[in-house]
Specification:
Blueprint (H helix, E strand, L loop, with lengths): L9 H23 L8 E6 L11 E4 L15 E4 L19 H10 L5 E5 L2 H8 L8
Antiparallel strand pairs: 1-2, 1-4, 2-3
Length: about 140
């Protein structure tokens, strides 16, 4: 049975709300800085303080297929560190990013990591498509 956000301790609910705010704001920076186009990339953040509250580790990530200009803190999905979406108050149609498993793996295996950014920048994609090393590698 999935975790239900509204049944978690108040401190965890507050931490999730603050994390959703930060993750939504960071997503706005990706297209603004030319790091992504369409929906190709995402940011996630570990929800701090969950284990101390007796709750399994959680992360907040962008929902799959939602454009950056449609994102809000309330649209950010909450998942466990095995990548499963919890009952977080978002509509069922908002599923976690297709990259969630990779983000969750990092958090599950590297407890010191607090956030992950994954993009397919146009520059890196162009160099990869040309089968050439980028000049910054």
């Amino acid at each position: 049975m999935p975790l239900v956000l509204t049944e978690l301790p108040e401190t965890v609910q507050e931490a999730v709300a603050a994390t959703r705010e930060r993750v939504a704001a960071l997503h706005a920076e990706l297209p603004r800085n030319g790091l992504v186009v369409w929906t190709a990339g995402n940011v996630s953040e570990r929800v701090p303080g969950t284990e101390a509250a007796g709750v399994p580790g959680l992360l907040v990530i962008k929902p799959s297929g939602v454009s950056y200009d449609e994102l809000s803190p309330e649209a950010m999905v909450v998942c466990t560190l095995d990548g499963a979406k919890i009952a977080d108050g978002t509509p069922e149609r908002l599923t976690p990013s297709s990259d969630t498993a990779a983000h969750a793996y990092v958090y599950a295996h590297l407890p010191e990591v607090g956030g992950v950014v994954h993009t397919h920048s146009t520059y890196a994609t162009a160099w990869a498509r040309a089968a050439r090393r980028s000049p910054v590698c």
